Amino acid sequence: MLAAAFQTAVARSDWAAAVAALDGLIALAPSASLSYNKAVALRRAGRAVEAAEAARTALAQDPAHGNALFELGAALMDAGDRPGATDAFRRVLARHPGDADARTNLAALQVAAGEPSEALAVLGDVGGAEAEQTRAAAWRDLGDLDAADRHMAALPAATALKIATQGATGRIPLDVRRWRPGQGVP
C-alpha cells in the first residue's frame, strides 16, 4: 500500500506525499535505497537540508551507494553549502571519473569559488547546455570574452545574457567590460 502511494505521488510530482509514503516504508524496513529515494523527494520538494540528511542516512546504510553520494552533493549545492557539495562531487568523481553530471556540478562550484581554470579542467569534454554555461562563465571570469562568447552562442539568449552580465566581481555589463580607456563611452 505504501509503495503504491509512493509511486502515485511521484507520478503526480507530489513530493510531500512521496516523503510521507517513504517515511512509512522506512519505518517498516529501513534501507539505503529508501533513504536515497527520500533524499531525492525532499530535494525536489525544495527541502535541501533535509535531503542532505536523508542522503547521509543512505550512505551510512550503504557507503558504496554512488547515487546517494551524488544526491548528497546536489542537496548541499542547493542548500548553499559549497564546500560540502564540492567534497561530495569530488568523492563521486573518485569513484566514477567519467560522471558528466558530477563533473559539471563540481565545475560550477569551482567557478562560483573563483577557480575558473580548475573548472575548465574538470569539465574536459563534457557536453550539454549546463556544461556550456559553466564554460562560458569560466572563460568570462578568466577575462577571455571571445571564448565566453563562443560558448554563450550555444545557449538560450536569456542564459547567455545572464552570464554576460554577471561576473565573479558582480554585475558588470559585457560591453562595459570590453571598454578600454580612450574608446569613448560604451
UniProtKB/TrEMBL annotation:
PROSITE patterns: TPR (PS50005). Keywords: TPR repeat. SUPFAM superfamilies: TPR-like (SSF48452). The keyword Cell inner membrane does not apply. TPR repeats lie at residues 66-99. Transmembrane segments: none annotated. InterPro entries: TMTC_O-mannosyl-trnsfr (IPR052943), TPR-like_helical_dom_sf (IPR011990), TPR_rpt (IPR019734). It holds the Pfam family TPR_16. This is Tetratricopeptide repeat protein. It comes from Acuticoccus sediminis.
